[in-house]
Write a structure and sequence with these properties.
Length: 287
């Protein structure tokens, strides 16, 4: 149970032991996420960053000076709402294997899709099965005028969540989860915080901050920290509106693991929205 800070004003605190069918708030929030920006069915966008140029320079540093360097590939990101999947590919002539490996590394870091990262659509049945397998508690409180609900799942044995509650791409473990806590704002219908305890007693916390626009709330910042202080990661996103649809135009991902630090910024340019994909891409994005 979390104790509010001294500035917090706790006016209501209620703990309920519940069954799966009695936890409607998560599915309410899941439906709200699925309905955001309904006009957006898919997109393809070009990913630009200095890291690509730096990587090519490192890969070709041993070549003689008079040997032509390979052209930089075009890195494109594809996303499809119906499958909930995204894909980053290196495209262009003569894309050699190391370039494809680089694209795969990019995919692990920037294929994260903010619009369906939390409580992905179509996974309600999987979430219900986890509710059935866990001891479930709901904490409802009114903290300084903000109503929150906290749903806790305590498992007898560590489980593999398999993406039922949150997506991949930001370092949250899916396997070996012993305890899961999800804090939601039931009025704004967003996830505010996730806390995970793993089988080896590691505790990770993800917090989300949002920007309010005419069409709803945009997840501008994700912050991931570990209880022992060994990890601090952030993903900051700048959005821009295209024909009424808000899409990321820049993301900065920074991470500190112990004494090691790294940061990378990417830009997203030349969006094509609600377009046709090549058959190969469609196959890779299939459910």
């Amino acid at each position: 149970m979390r104790i509010p800070g001294l500035t917090g004003l706790l006016s209501l605190f209620l703990v309920l032991s519940v069954q799966a069918a009695e936890v409607p708030v998560l599915e309410k929030v899941a439906r709200a996420y699925a309905k955001r920006q309904p006009a957006l069915e898919n997109y393809v966008v070009t990913v630009e960053t200095d890291r690509i140029r730096q990587t090519i320079e490192q890969m070709t540093a041993s070549l003689p000076a008079d040997v032509p360097r390979p052209p930089a590939p075009v890195i494109r990101k594809y996303w499809k709402r119906s499958s909930g999947k995204s894909l980053i590919r290196a495209e262009g002539a003569n894309v050699f294997p190391l370039m494809r490996q680089m694209a795969q590394r990019f995919s692990r870091q920037f294929a994260l899709e903010l619009f369906d990262f939390f409580l992905p659509a179509g996974r309600g049945g999987d979430r219900a099965r986890f509710f059935d397998a866990a001891e479930v508690k709901v904490v409802e409180n009114d903290l300084a005028g903000v109503r929150l609900q906290s749903v806790t799942l305590q498992f007898a044995e560590p489980v593999d969540l398999g993406g039922a509650f949150y997506g991949d791409g930001f370092g949250l473990p899916q396997k070996g989860v012993r305890r899961l806590v999800i804090d939601v704002d039931p009025e704004k219908e967003v996830v505010k915080r996730i806390e995970i305890t793993t089988a080896d007693d590691r505790i990770l916390t993800l917090e989300a901050r949002y920007r309010e626009v005419s069409s709803g709330l945009l997840p501008e910042e994700l912050m991931l920290t570990s209880f022992d202080g060994s990890l601090d990661a952030r993903l900051e996103t700048v959005f821009k509106q295209f024909d009424g649809i808000w899409l990321p135009v820049r993301q900065t991902r920074s991470i500190r693991r112990g004494e090691r630090q790294d940061a990378m910024t990417v830009s997203f340019v030349d969006y094509e929205v609600n377009t046709s994909f090549a058959p190969e891409v469609e196959k890779l994005l299939a459910p």
